[in-house]
User: Fold Large ribosomal subunit protein bL17 from Hymenobacter mellowenesis.
Amino acid sequence: MRHGRKINHLGRTTAHRHAMLSNMASSLILHKRLTTTVAKAKALRKYVEPMLTKSKEDTTHSRRMVFAALQDKESIKELFGNISGKIANRPGGYTRILKLSDTRLGDNAEMCIIELVDFNETLIESKQAAADKAAAGTTRRSRRGGKKAAGDAAATTSATEVKGEAVAPNAVVEQSAPADTATETVKDGESREEAKADEAGA
Assistant:
């Protein structure tokens, strides 16, 4: 039973566990991303995040404290150089654990990726694009009956075509009167009756 057991020993002795976590922390600092089991990733997060906090103050004391744990000059140089500048404004939470769907083939252990939050460029770019889109306000809005309304508009347009010419849906179509051969020409200023009376008198 695990009564009061706050530290996951990971099936190793204390010296072996510290050596393993030190090696994993150095790899995470140098490569910014690491694939491991979920249990190791959670133990590594507790181990490496205090070091990242110490790197914000570039003093001799901080460098010696971190070097006592890592024992690697290259990782110290990277930590106090590139990483400390990027995490300067972040108040903790420097790492992210992403669980993978597949498990390890040998013992079926849950696998995950542990990475530094500020160095995942793909995720940062996608979040920035989403923020820009939200700020621009160009969200797509749909309403019910959109397809039906489009169909009605198409039917109205096709119905208002006259003699091969497209007419606006709201326009009033004027039909020309049929030509009447028996219609007589009426002079200006005369009514139809007067015209007929003149013809009868003639």
Residues 181-186 have pLDDT under 50 and may be disordered. The domain at 14-121 is CATH 3.90.1030.10 (50s Ribosomal Protein L17; Chain: A,).
